[in-house]
Design goal:
The protein has 474 residues and is mainly α. The protein is 67% helix and 3% strand. The protein is built from 24 helices and three strands. The protein has helices at 2-17, 34-49, 58-72, 106-111, 115-130, 133-138, 146-161, 166-172, 186-202, 209-223, 230-234, 239-249, 261-274, 277-288, 296-309, 313-326, 331-344, 350-360, 365-377, 381-394, 399-411, 415-428, 432-445, 449-472, and strands at 83-87, 94-97, 101-105. The protein has a three-stranded mixed β-sheet with strand order 1-3-2, sandwiched between helices. Strand 2 and strand 3 form a beta hairpin. The longest helix has 24 residues, at 449-472.
Length: 474
């Protein structure tokens, strides 16, 4: 599986530097193909993951993908691959990248008062992807490579978050894209609304959450002294658009859709990890005090996590007791229990706790990371390697798994494999030079013929990509 992932990456990347793109201005070609859109999106994501604003939190990402998968399964192109991720930014924004990549700012997740509101934004962004609005946006322009288009995609993303920087960002991306192309057209937005509402309804969410969330964002605009949230700047809400949505929903009965516990826990976690610990503690104490707002289980969870971040372990343990007394069986809460056990250092059988926890929640990556670290601390290197190899077969693009795998190989004295795993870690962070350096070290330190053969192939491919990049940017 690992080899397949790398070959796919190399083929996609090399294709981005290949000549012979169809003439995007030729109406007979209509637009960029879905395969090219995916390649553009993959290239863009390597740049996004390398950015410090990318929120590398497995629990938040897994929740967004679980919610997104429900919506995608009910959208017009359910066979498309999608990846949902979070950006650590208070700005109220979400965006779709070509090829099925959808980003959501933490500020938007925290503004959503219920899961249907968040789902309404995701369904709208999914519709931009399935209707190929990005391809339509740039059709008619001519570019010399898909790599240039990937750079343009990231520049558009940056410019849409900060319109004042639009010109500089786009000129730096060598694209020559006009300001009018930063935003989807009115027709694009109405189409995404229409299809998004249908997707919401088929997925069992409250369709009226879409206009309700738009109204809340507009109220936030007034609170921001006239500075519209990024989402409203890039997805302008016109009177015509609001009327169109209202007309579509007139005959739709109101339906009360309860939030999932994970929606509430993720929001609590974002409060706990993005605010200063003391501020987060005060927020959750207020929520659990006389004011009593929000979900009590989520508030106990958030307060426990904030106390733990503030190095108040004893108080965190006491708060977790209140949480356990109310909470159902849940992967995120089990993960927090493990972190408390590790922090107090009194648990004698941590490995046993994590063995059971990962059996109960085998797909919960945050538990896997912690279990692997405990195994490494206990010098159970073969057990750690077995666990990580199994997970890499499932989550082949998870850079944290490769980092832990490299540490395990290092502990076992398997230097060649350590550097090879680090090459995967670096490439998934968008660091081509670092990946090449690690492959060269792996080549110098290894004797396994089959491993060396793979390393040679990858080195040849990566050097070709690096040379192409130098030629494009002399």
């Amino acid at each position: 599986m690992k080899r397949i992932i790398f070959l796919l990456f190399c083929c996609a990347t090399l294709a981005c530097y290949a000549d012979g793109l169809p003439d995007l201005g030729d109406v007979s070609q209509e637009m960029i193909s879905p395969l090219q859109e995916r390649q553009i999106g993959e290239q863009s994501m390597y740049q996004i993951r390398a950015n410090k604003s990318y929120l590398d939190d497995a629990e938040v990402a897994d929740y967004l993908n679980q919610l997104g998968d429900i919506l995608v399964s009910n959208c017009p192109e359910p066979a498309m691959d999608f990846e949902f991720f979070a950006i650590n930014d208070n700005a109220i924004n979400a965006f779709a990248m070509p090829g099925g990549f959808v980003g959501v700012n933490t500020g938007l997740i925290l503004l959503a008062e219920n899961e249907s509101e968040l789902a309404s934004v995701l369904s709208h962004e999914i519709s931009h992807v399935t209707q190929h609005h990005f391809a339509r946006m740039i059709s008619g322009q001519k570019y010399d490579s898909l790599a240039a288009l990937a750079t343009i995609a990231v520049a558009i993303l940056a410019a849409r978050n900060n319109p004042q920087a639009a010109s500089a960002a786009i000129m730096g991306a060598q694209g020559g894209v006009m300001q009018r192309q930063l935003n989807f057209t009115r027709e694009n937005e109405q189409e995404a609304d229409r299809i998004g509402i249908a997707t919401l309804q088929k997925s069992g969410f409250d369709t009226r959450a879409m206009p309700a969330f738009f109204e809340r964002m507009q109220r936030a605009t007034r609170l921001l002294e006239g500075n519209a949230p990024s989402y409203l700047r890039t997805h302008p809400i016109t009177a015509e658009r609001i009327a169109d949505v209202d007309n579509r929903l007139q005959q739709t009965p109101f339906r009360l859709v309860p939030d999932s516990l994970n929606f509430q826990l993720v929001r609590a976690k974002l409060h706990a990890i993005t605010k200063p610990p003391a501020e987060a503690i005060a927020f959750f104490k207020s929520a659990l005090g006389d004011q009593k707002f929000g979900n009590p289980i989520a508030n106990h969870y958030g307060l426990t996590l904030a106390l733990l971040r503030n190095k108040q372990g004893k108080l965190a343990e006491q708060e977790f007791i209140s949480l356990q007394n109310q909470a159902p069986f849940n992967a995120m809460i089990t993960t927090l229990a493990g972190k408390l056990k590790r922090s107090n250092g009194q648990e004698k059988n941590l490995a046993g706790f994590y063995r059971t926890a990962t059996q109960n929640f085998p797909q919960h990556r945050a538990l896997v990371y912690d279990y692997a670290e405990v195994l490494l601390e206990n010098h159970s290197y073969q057990d750690a390697l077995k666990l990580l190899n199994e997970q890499i077969l499932i989550h082949g693009n998870d850079q944290r798994l490769y980092e832990l795998q490299a540490k395990t190989f290092a502990a076992l004295g398997r230097v060649q494999e350590e550097h090879h795993a680090l090459a995967y870690y670096f490439i998934l962070h968008g660091n081509l030079r670092g990946a090449i350096d690690q492959l060269e070290l792996a080549k110098q330190t290894g004797t396994d013929y089959y491993e060396l053969s793979t390393i040679e192939t990858e080195l040849k491919q990566f050097r070709a990509i690096a040379a192409a990049q130098r030629n494009k940017n002399p």
